[in-house]
C-alpha cells in the first residue's frame, strides 16, 4: 500500500493565490506542500500576464521607432527580429521563474512537480519523475487555473491554431495573422502583432469589440484598431476552418466568405482545468461551465477543501487571485474577509491603455441607480500632448444623490496608473470633489482628473 504523506496545508496548483498562501503558511511554521505540473510560479509569469506584456512592449518599441522622425530622431519602417523578440520574452519569464523558485525555497514549503489527481476524498496522487506519491492535508486548496478554449468549429482543432501560449514563442513574424475573439487577449495580441509588422484580421462574433464596455468606449477602441490598419470583422460567425496555421489557413464565415491568412490565433474565452483530476471523488461540486462552486469564503462543497483563483469563478486577473489568498489566509487566522463587495480594477494593455474600475455607465443604468456622467477627451490633457498620445477618453460615473464615485473608465496613455488614483479615492470613500479640487502635479496624465471631475455636474442621468 502506497504511503500517504500528510501536511497541514496542501495546495494543488501553483498560481498566484496558491503559491502566496503556501509561502505565507510555511513561514508561519506549517508543514506545506504545493503540487504543480511544471509551471514554476504559475501561468501569470509563464504564459500569461508577464510574457504577454513583454511582447506588447516589444511592439510598442517597434511602433515608436517607426514614428521617431516626428520626435526629431531617425526612424522609419525597420524590420523586426522575431528571434530576438521571442528571446527577450523568454528571458523575462526565466528571470521571474528563477525569482519564484528562490522565494519558494526560502519559505520552506515542499514543491512537488507532477500531475496530481484525487484518488480518495482527501488524497491526491502525483505522477512525478520519481514515481507516484500520495499526499493529504488538513486543509486542501485547489488553485487549478484555466486554459484557452477552442470553440467547436469544424476543422479548427485540426488546423493547429495558436493560442496565446504558442503565439508568445513565435520566432517568425506571421505574414497575416487571423485573430478569433475581441476580448482582452485577442485585442492585446492583435495590436501587438500588427505593430510588429504582421497584417492582422480580427474576427468577433458579437456586434462590437470589448463587449462588456460602454458603446462609446468600444467604438473608440475599434477606431484605434482600424487606424492601426487592423481589419476588424464584427458580428461574424466562423462556420469552418480550412488549412493549417503556420502555412495557409482560411476562416470560412457563415455567409460563405473566406478570410485567409498565414496563422490563426484563438482567443475565444477560457475553460477551467477541472477535468480528469477526480474532483467527483473528492466531493467537489462544479457549475454548468466546469468551474468549482465556492462560497464567499472560497469553501467548496467538500469539507476542508477550498478553491482559489479563476477556477473558483473569481474574475480572471492575477490581482484578484492575490486577494483570494488574503481571503484564504483570513479563514485560517479567524478573520472575516470574504469575496463579497470587492472593488476590482481591470487594465487592457493595448496602446493607449484601457482601464476601468467600478460601474460602467451601462451597468449603472441597468442597476436602476440615478447617476451623473463626466467625460473628458484625453486630447485636452497637456501631458497627452507632450507625449504625442492624444487619443482616448476619460469617463466617470457619479451617484446623482451624492458625490460618491461609482466608476471610472480611461482609454489613454498611462491609464492603468491613473486608475489607481481613482481606486484609492473610492476605497477611501472620498467624494469626487476631492479629485476635482486636489492639487495634482502638472503636467501628468493624472492631472486630467481635475479636469474630468470639474465637468461632473454637467451631465445628469
Automatic annotation (TrEMBL):
Note on how the cofactor is bound: Binds 1 FAD per subunit.
Protein known as: FAD-dependent oxidoreductase
Binding, NAD(+): 181-188, 204, 269
GO molecular function: flavin adenine dinucleotide binding; NAD(P)H dehydrogenase (quinone) activity
InterPro entries: FAD/NAD-bd_sf (IPR036188), FAD/NAD-binding_dom (IPR023753), FAD/NAD-linked_Rdtase_dimer_sf (IPR016156), Pyr_nuc-diS_OxRdtase (IPR001100), Pyr_nucl-diS_OxRdtase_dimer (IPR004099)
Keyword Hydrolase: no
The protein's required cofactors: FAD
Binding site for FAD: 53, 116, 316-319
Coiled coil segments of this chain: none
Gene3D superfamilies: 3.30.390.30, FAD/NAD(P)-binding domain
Family of the protein in this entry: Belongs to the class-I pyridine nucleotide-disulfide oxidoreductase family.
Catalytic residues (UniProt): 442
Disulfide cross-links: 44-49
UniProt domain FAD/NAD(P)-binding: residue ranges: 7-322
Keyword Flavoprotein in record: yes
Organism per entry: Lichenifustis flavocetrariae
Listed SUPFAM superfamilies: FAD/NAD(P)-binding domain (SSF51905), FAD/NAD-linked reductases, dimerisation (C-terminal) domain (SSF55424)
UniProtKB keywords: FAD, Flavoprotein, NAD, Nucleotide-binding, Oxidoreductase
Domain Pyridine nucleotide-disulphide oxidoreductase dimerisation span(s) in chain numbering: 344-449
Superkingdom of the organism of origin: Bacteria
Amino acid at each position: 500500500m502506497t504511503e500517504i504523506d500528510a501536511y497541514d496545508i496542501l495546495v494543488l496548483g501553483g498560481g498566484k493565490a496558491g503559491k502566496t498562501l503556501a509561502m505565507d503558511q510555511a513561514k508561519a511554521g506549517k508543514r506545506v506542500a504545493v503540487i504543480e505540473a511544471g509551471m514554476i510560479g504559475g501561468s501569470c509569469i509563464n504564459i500569461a500576464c508577464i510574457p504577454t506584456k513583454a511582447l506588447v512592449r516589444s511592439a510598442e518599441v517597434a511602433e515608436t521607432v517607426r514614428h521617431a522622425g516626428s520626435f526629431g530622431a531617425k526612424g522609419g519602417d525597420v524590420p523586426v527580429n522575431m528571434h530576438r523578440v521571442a528571446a527577450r520574452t523568454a528571458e523575462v519569464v526565466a528571470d521571474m521563474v528563477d525569482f519564484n523558485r528562490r522565494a519558494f525555497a526560502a519559505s520552506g514549503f515542499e514543491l512537488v512537480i507532477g500531475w496530481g489527481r484525487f484518488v480518495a476524498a482527501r488524497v491526491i496522487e502525483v505522477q512525478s519523475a520519481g514515481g507516484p506519491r500520495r499526499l493529504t492535508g488538513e486543509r486542501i486548496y485547489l488553485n487549478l487555473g484555466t486554459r484557452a478554449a477552442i470553440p467547436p468549429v469544424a476543422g479548427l482543432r485540426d488546423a493547429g491554431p495558436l493560442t496565446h501560449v504558442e503565439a508568445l514563442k513565435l520566432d517568425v513574424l506571421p505574414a497575416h495573422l487571423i485573430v478569433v475573439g475581441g476580448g482582452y487577449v485577442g485585442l492585446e495580441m492583435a495590436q501587438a502583432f500588427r505593430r510588429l509588422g504582421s497584417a492582422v484580421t480580427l474576427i468577433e462574433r458579437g456586434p462590437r469589440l470589448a463587449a462588456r464596455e460602454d458603446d462609446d468606449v468600444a467604438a473608440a477602441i475599434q477606431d484605434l484598431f482600424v487606424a492601426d490598419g487592423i481589419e476588424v470583422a464584427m458580428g461574424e460567425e466562423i462556420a469552418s476552418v480550412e488549412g493549417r496555421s503556420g502555412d495557409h489557413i482560411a476562416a470560412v464565415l457563415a455567409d460563405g466568405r473566406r478570410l485567409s491568412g498565414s496563422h490563426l490565433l484563438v482567443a475565444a474565452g477560457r475553460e477551467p482545468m477541472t477535468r480528469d483530476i477526480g474532483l467527483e471523488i473528492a466531493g467537489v461540486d462544479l457549475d454548468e461551465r466546469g468551474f468549482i462552486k465556492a462560497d464567499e469564503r472560497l469553501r467548496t462543497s467538500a469539507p476542508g477543501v477550498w478553491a482559489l483563483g479563476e477556477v473558483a469563478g473569481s474574475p480572471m486577473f492575477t490581482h484578484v487571485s492575490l486577494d483570494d489568498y488574503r481571503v484564504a489566509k483570513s479563514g485560517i487566522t479567524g478573520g472575516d474577509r470574504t469575496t463579497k463587495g470587492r472593488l476590482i480594477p481591470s487594465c487592457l494593455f493595448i496602446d493607449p491603455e484601457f482601464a476601468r474600475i467600478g460601474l460602467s455607465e451601462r451597468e449603472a443604468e441597468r442597476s436602476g441607480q440615478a447617476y451623473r456622467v463626466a467625460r473628458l477627451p484625453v486630447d485636452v490633457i497637456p501631458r497627452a500632448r507632450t507625449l504625442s498620445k492624444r487619443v482616448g477618453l476619460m469617463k466617470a460615473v457619479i451617484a446623482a444623490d451624492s458625490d460618491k464615485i461609482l466608476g471610472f473608465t480611461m482609454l489613454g496613455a498611462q491609464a492603468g496608473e491613473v486608475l489607481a488614483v481613482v481606486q484609492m479615492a473610492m476605497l477611501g470613500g472620498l467624494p469626487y470633489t476631492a479629485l476635482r479640487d486636489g492639487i495634482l502635479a502638472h503636467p501628468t496624465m493624472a492631472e486630467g482628473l481635475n479636469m474630468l471631475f470639474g465637468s461632473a455636474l454637467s451631465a445628469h442621468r
